Amino acid sequence: MTTLDSYHIMIVSKYFKTIEDYINLELVCKKCICNMEKFHFNPIPLSYKTIKYFPNIETLHLWHMYDENFGNEFLVDHQNDKCHQNIIKCNNVVVTKSFYQIVVWFHVYYPTVDQYKNLNFKFKNVIYTQNDRIKFGNTIPLCVTQIGLYCFNECQNLSSIILPSNVTSLGFGCFSCCKYLSNIVIPTSVISIDDYCFYECRSLSDITIPINVTTIGDYCFSKCNCLSYVNIPSNVISLGFECFDGCSSLSSVVIPLCYTSIDENCFPANTKIYDPNGLVNRFIVSKSQYI
Question: What's the superkingdom here (predicted)?
Answer without folding.
Answer: Eukaryota
